[in-house]
Amino acid sequence: IEHCQDFGTSYIITETGTLDPEHPWSDFRDNRAPATLALFRRNLTPSVRLAEKNGVTILLKGYLYHVVHNMEIARSIHEHFGPTVRFVMDPASYFTRNMVSASTSFLRRLF
After folding, report:
1. d(Cα 23, Cα 91) in Å, to the nearest integer?
2. Is 91 helix (H, G, I), strand (E, B) or coil?
């Protein structure tokens, strides 16, 4: 965060992560617990303060099975931290295994 300006940017991107120590891309029940969201906010706070001090915006990338896994939680994070925290809107992060076959035909048409 302290060196973003050195690279000509005022943005830094990170994923929101999971509590699952073995399978970072699998569904993990504890990621949806209110205590996990509170822990995420608590751990993000020092980075937000540092970003504010350095004129940097933190862009979070949620994922279907991570701590920030839906629009309501993303909105609550943004409201809690304000304009210093925004989101990368990557639709691929919200595909499920059930959607893969349907998305294949769509992607073939697209590209």
Report:
1. 21
2. helix
